[in-house]
Amino acid sequence: MPTESLAFASITDLGRRLRLREVTAVQLAEFFLERLNRLGPEYHAVVCTTSETALKQADQADQELRLGQDRGPLHGIPFGVKDLLSTKGIPTTWGAAPLETQLIDADATVIVRLREAGAVLCAKLAMVELAGGFGYRQANASFTGPGLNPWDKTCWSGGSSSGSGTAVGAGLVPFAIGSETMGSIVTPSCYCGVSGLRPTYGRVSRHGAMALSWTMDKIGPICRTAEDCGWVLNAIAGSDPADSTSLPEPWSFAPRPAEHRYRFAVLDFNRGQLQPEVLANYERSLEVLRTLGSIETIRLPDLPYFLVGSTIVSCEMAAAFDQFLESDAVWKLTAPEDRWGGFSNLMIPAKDYIHALRIRGKIQREIDATLAPFDAIVTPTLNTESGSIERPFSTWAQGFVCSELSGAANVAGLPGITVPNGFGPRGLPTGIEFTGRAFDENQILSIAKAYQQQTDWHTRHPPL
User: Fold this and answer.
1) Which residues contact residue 215 at a Cβ distance below 8 angstroms, ignoring those fewer than 6 apart?
2) Contact criterion met (CB below 8 Å) for 325 and 130
3) Which of 32, 144, 318, 386 is the most exposed place for a label (fewest CB within 10 A)?
4) What's the pLDDT score for residue 273?
């Protein structure tokens, strides 16, 4: 029978146990459903569990394995999804109180592809209402409550994929699906001490996902390890006729051999903006990376990355939620600032949006030229460990380190992966991020996997 050690096992380890028949898919589903039901509400991480679906899918997975039908690394593995992905017969709330009963009676492409890979859907996971697009400024911006950090329940789990980060960090599911427009995969992954991958824009179909920004939204995995992220992306990546922005090329997980030597870039930035412990963890991580390759300091082109990104997101959000803003529903949102925050975006002139799109093209060209000589740019994921759920973000969160890169990567649609690299002053996780060129997920996954082979931070978990 399953033991507590399964809660923090990797996908690879769980798959091995399934194939050795040490555990069945049904037992795994029951084990994680129990944790989701018991601990999920305690951490404000779960909108609903999907027990009937999970047990049916798990039973099918067991039958197929007995018959020698193996769908691959995710076969029989439980998972949860951020509640902006539609699921047939199950409400999709987008984290918003006025949409608590919203039923989009079709499965998102990501849901279909994970089912085809044999994965077992166990939960719809909490998120910041409407993916944070209405300007929330504090953790309590979801009808499920503020996302609580599994390392310290007085601190935030990160947004907007709060439930996905917490669920993996607390061992409620082996992996989860999140989404990112401007940091919503890497932030909760970093704060919760897990691995999170932001794929290249268009690598994963967004069909069936809530749209915040049509030209910047990305869907990706949150897992225990970088290798797990690779296997999940392997299942969900690929062209989709239902999403015209999906990349036409097929993609498969193919990490480079461990003996490959890498060329890393680091940014010339003010180290004083980091918590001392975050800086120490970063410098220790660089020492590990020097055993894997060379390191060179660079500067990014001087371009208005965050201004361009925020303009694009604001304008596209205003269009995506036009009808919502005209309805009474907006006044039922949880965070006070979300009830009025969207209206200002309606006043942005069209010329500002057009200028932002034009400048984005320049950003994409110049950032790619900057990255071309390197395998990845390496930065601390965030400036600080997580902070109190009782205080506005402005009182403790200093944002993204080298914020120009964070903005540039999201505006340009570049892939990035964060993995844990230590702990901050109060014992909360910190992270290191590898940003790569467009379409080069395998490169940064290989680097992150090599880093995790040299360290053990990804094996640490909270004493729940």
Assistant:
1) 201, 245, 312, 316, 357
2) no
3) 318
4) 87
Residues marked active site are found at: 82, 160, 184
Residue labelled with tokens 């789990």: 157
- The DSSP output letter for 138 is S
Alpha carbons 28 and 56: distance in angstroms, whole number = 13
Domain boundaries, the chain: 4-304+356-459
Closest CA to 85 of 54, 29, 123: 123
Give residue 398's pLDDT.
62
Our CA angle for 32, 33, 35, nearest 5°, is 65
Read off the pLDDT of residues 301-350 as tens digits, 9 standing for 90 and up: 999 999 999 999 999 999 999 999 999 999 999 999 999 999 999 999 99
Rounded to the nearest 10°, the torsion over CA 434, 438, 442, 446 is -20
CATH of 4-304+356-459, one of 3.40.720.10, 3.40.50.2000, 3.90.1300.10, 3.40.50.740: 3.90.1300.10
Query: What's the Cα-to-Cα distance from 186 to each of 50, 289, 300, 416, rounded to whole Å?
Result: 26, 20, 20, 8
Q: Sign of the CA dihedral 326, 185, 255, 433?
A: positive
**Amino acid 464: pLDDT:** 76
Percent of the chain that is helix, strand, coil (3-state, to 5) = 40, 15, 40
Share of the chain above pLDDT 70, in %: 98
